[in-house]
Amino acid sequence: MRHGNQPGLNDGDPLESPLGQILWFWGTSLFLAVLLFFPTSKLIGGIAVRRLEKRLGRASDDSERHRVLRRARLIGGVVAITFAFLFNRALLS
After folding, report:
1. CB-based contact 32:87 (threshold 8 Å)
2. What is the distance, to the nearest Å, from the Cα of residue 85 to the centroid of all Cα atoms in its chain?
3. CA–CA dist 60, 51 (Å, integer)
């Protein structure tokens, strides 16, 4: 039996609290960043390998391709994380 304005365990929306909003922002931003990482890194990697082969004038070998793709994954991660946080900030504000 509750009296007055005593909160119960299931009262209200957890997203109404400041902590809930912060956790929702970070969680959805990281989720979006993970989803964007794979296609972004593949796109950047494909463009980088094609540009390398055009610059060399021949097909690249595995070690060159591996080096370029590793750098593309790093750049893709930075792009995905940055876009996800900025997009989520614009969407939730």
Report:
1. yes
2. 8
3. 10
